[in-house]
Amino acid sequence: MQKSASTLLAGLSAMMITLLIWSGFFLSLRASTHSNLTTADIALIRFVPAAVLFSWLCRYKFRRILQTPKRYLLLICWGAGLPYFLIAGQGLQYVPVADGASLIPGILPLFVSGIAVFCYRETISPARKAGLVLIATGVAGFVAKSFAAGQPGMLLGYSILLFASFSWAWFTIAMRLSGLTAMEGAAVIAISGCLLLAAGALSGQMSFNLLAADHHEVFYHFLVQGVGVGIISSLCYTMAISRLGAEVSAALGSFTPVLAALIAIPLFSEPLTEQTMLAMALIVMGALAASEVLSVHQGSLLKKLRRQRAG
User: Taking the complete model, does pTM exceed 0.85, yes or no?
Assistant: First the structure.
């Protein structure tokens, strides 16, 4: 059935909001390296408001959530919760925003397809393989840039960001196989993030400077991380998938690095080199070609899991 103009407009509008928030996520983490706020402060702003809201919205669903296989809950908490947040924040301390925004969402289809092939014996089409090759070539371009510039710190940053993307890939698959709704998954992420923050504070492994920070900075991060990333983006992305389909939404998500890099130019004076622009272009083109991996593989994995449960 052909989508109506209003449906397409609603989906595109939701996806544009999602892209702006995803870009703001990377910009916010990068900005925290130039402020008095610690990464733990940003995490507190990110997870607490979402935990309060989604705990109330899912107050009658906790029994169902706890019945979810623990391995999926663990992967959701790790791949999109506080561990992922800390890993991504650490990586962005070494590399420009354009690099981080390209590697994490851009390399995602490559990791998702790799997990599907090696762990679930799935197959991918030649067209998608070509897209994954473009992504790998773009990543190699970033690594080559750090070698050419003699900056080992950037190479370390790339390695950390690749691990962050790998974690997110496992979250993507676990979220799909768990059967949880977007709101239930958001509740798991937010509540687990708060619990881990509390554990880190009690053990002395995390330091907070929120009360001493400039209130304008706190308000900015509250809007971007607490309201934007923690609450709005998950709901908008869900709406985009329902209106546009998972394949189109995933493809549009690959434009996050372009938008983040353009915004970072005036904010952090991070110029785009020719090599960076080429690597970004390869990753975006590869993600557009390989974005179907996200929906096709997860759909087949879900069917396989249902067959196993039925058996």
Answer: no
